Amino acid sequence: xxxxxxxxxxxxxxxxxxxxxxxxxxxxxxxxxxxxxxxxxxxxxxxxxxxxxxxxxxxxxxxxxxxxxxxxxxxxxxxxxxxxxxxxxxxxxxxxxxxxxxxxxxxxxxxxxxxxxxxx
Length: 120
Hints:
By secondary structure, the chain is of the alpha+beta class. 17% of the residues lie in helices and 30% in strands. It has helices spanning 37-49, 111-117; strands at residues 2-4, 7-13, 24-25, 57-58, 62-66, 69-73, 76-79, 91-98. Strands 1, 2, 3, 4, 7 and 8 form a 6-stranded mixed beta sheet that branches. Strand 1 and strand 2 form a beta hairpin. The longest helix has 13 residues, at 37-49.
């Protein structure tokens, strides 16, 4: 999760990703065999937004079921001020929104748990 003041970065998933095309999400990615969740979070933030940063907070990992797949989510909070965003091919657009506005968007499963886990 990337936060700028009271707003969080929302990313719309493109048709080129494997799951939840068109849904709104945060930065996400798979943990490679040689990476820790923290290393993956830092790498994915850089790849998906061009922001080079380190998280200010980590939430407790939790699981989300999507049909036959169970995902383990490792929440991290990155706090930035007036950052410039360049999204990659995984997304078609981005928005800065307040957490309470997210209910009006079609979001990936478990995103609300990420907010709560990070105290947002």
